[in-house]
Each structure stands twice: as C-alpha cells, then as structure tokens.
Specification:
The protein is mostly helical and 373 residues long. The chain has helices at residues 4-20, 25-42, 57-61, 75-95, 105-108, 115-119, 130-137, 145-160, 164-168, 206-221, 255-276, 284-297, 301-310, 316-323, 328-336, 348-360, 362-372, and strands at 175-176, 181-184, 198-201, 231-237, 243-249. The chain contains 17 helices and five strands. The longest helix has 22 residues, at 255-276.
Amino acid sequence: MIDRENYKKARLYMDYLTGTLQNTPDTVRHRWGELKHLLLWADKTPFSEARRIDPSFQTYLETARNDGKDIPLSPASLGKTCQVARRFFTWLHGNDPKGYKELTPSWIDTIKPSKRKLQSEVFIHEFYSFEEIKAIAALDVSNDLFLRSSQAAAAFLYLSGMRAAAFLSLPVSCVDIKKRRVSQLPSMGVLTKNRKAAITSLLDIKDLLNICAAWDEFVKGAGGVLWYPRLESNFYRDEEGSIGSSVFMSKDQGIRSVNGRRAALVDGLKRLCIMAGIAYKSPHKFRHGHVIYGMKRARNIAQLKAVSQNVMHGSLSITDGIYGGLSADDIGRSLADLENNQGEAGGPAGMLALLKSLQDNPDVLNMLIERSK
C-alpha cells in the first residue's frame, strides 16, 4: 500500500512542475508516470527514509513496470526515471531540510542506472531516416485530402524537428515557408516545452519543402487558422475530381484541440507508412530524424550547435546526450573512411583547428570529457 504522505508530496511536486516551472501538460503527464515508480518502490516507507530501502531504486527499476508490459525498461527510460527521482528528492530536501535530512545531495547523486545494466544492452536509436521520409514524400496522395495533410505533417516534422504538441498547435501565421522560418512562440498559442520561445528553421530539402509549400498555400487559401487543422468532411471536388479549395476547418486551439488532432496525425502517419512499405514510428521520431540528419552532415562545431539550437535545446551537450550515440552502421562507415581522411581534416592543421574550436566552445569540451568517463 502506497504511503499517503508520499502520495501527497508527489502531487505537490506535480503542482510545482505545472505552476512554478510551467511545464507543458504532456511533460507533467510523463513525470507523473515516472514518479509512480518511486511511489511503488517506496510502498509503505516514507520518502524521508528512502535511503534505507532495499533494494535501491535503481536496482528496483531493472525489473519494474507500471504499464502492464512484460519487458524491462529501456536504457533511456532508466536514465530519465532516475533523473526525475533525483530532482524530486532534491525538491523534497530543499523544501523541508529537517524532515528529509537523510536525503543528502551525495546520496541523491547515487540514483543512477548501473553501468553494468546499461552497457549489457545494445541501444537501438529509433528515428525516421532520410530514406524513409523520402519514401513518404514520393507517395501520390493528391486525391485524398486527409493523406495530403498527413504527408505535409510528416515533411514538416522532419524539416523542423518540432515536438508534436508544438506542431499541432502551430498557427499558420507562424510559418514562413519561403524563408524556411518557424516562429515557435507561446504568446501565439504554440505549446512548446516549458513555454520556451524561439525562431527556428526548416532544413533545406527541396522535395519536402515543396510538399510543405503546397499545403501551406492550400491551408491559408482555405482560411485555416492552424497549419495542421482538423479537417471536416464538407469539401468539394471539381468536375475532374480534384480537391477544391473550399474546406471547413476547426479553428479551435489549445490542449483539447491538440489531443484530438494527435489521434488523426497518428492515424494518417500509419497509413502513409503502410503505403510506403516502412515501419511506423511515433511522430516524435521525425524530430529524432531531423537531429540525426543534421548531426551526420555537420562539418564543424558551429553547425552542430545550430542543429542543437534549432530543436531548442539549452546546450549541445543535451543534444549529444540524447542523439549522439552512433549506430553500428555509422561506426562501420566512419572506420572505413579513416583511410580517406587526409589533408587539413586529418592532419596537424586539422588538429589545431579542432583544438581552437574546442577552446572557443567550453561546453563542447566539457561534454566530451563527461562522455569519456
């Protein structure tokens, strides 16, 4: 049975995330799912005595689930859940140092997945590859308005690297396809993570930009308010069977509207993936594809930082921590190319340029040092 006081503290922490930190509803929902692990682990033991619980929280997580699935948590989930636990215990200690005096910073810092566990599994990074988004873009969906909207959504998500909630709440006035610019502004109703505001850019991939430009023109011409609107069934076709420009679109915005369109987005993406003969992955995997596309093609630290800032990360180290692991194929190709690395890129001049770049970017240097531990 879960300790009542533990539950109250967990709910207060949710209020803190919502009110003080202004986390988005999606973020708060995820944090609650992760805190459930803490509640189940502690059971009847008060959080004030958490360091006495055996097994430790990180050990408990190796076999824990709270969603009914019969598989271990992924390495990424283990890391995130431990991070949430550290932040929660730090918050508890900060608000009541006497009541939670045993939750010392040194003990809290030990709540990390064991390296033995993380290194014993091969991490497979899921994302939509460039080849997969090209296959989706090549589909002829001109006679199906819903699939047109889904194809445009897939192209835009890949080009922008936006989170799904932000994309689903994006007004047409925040999109400038010609300048490849997206205004992710909470003041305009865009549901960004932690209400962060930024002007971001679209990748310069012609085929995908053409799809987005055509949809952008259609939506704005039809009087749409949101770039990915809720489509109604009342639209007409001309004598040749082509879709006309008159379509009734829902103009509502906000959380409830986003959740409703999310189901439509998933449905459309699944249909496109079946048509293209590729495996369906969640809308968020287009964001992963965007970052990996940029990181693979970046030739210097400035370009890597541009990729990081475009997905609104606070630092390059955050981007590297999430997306920096190379796949087995990437490692093989990189090793095969070592023999071809000559001249400035691989010689003394290249090494001096790299050292100078690291000197000018201490956050990147710290990131590399941390990864080497």
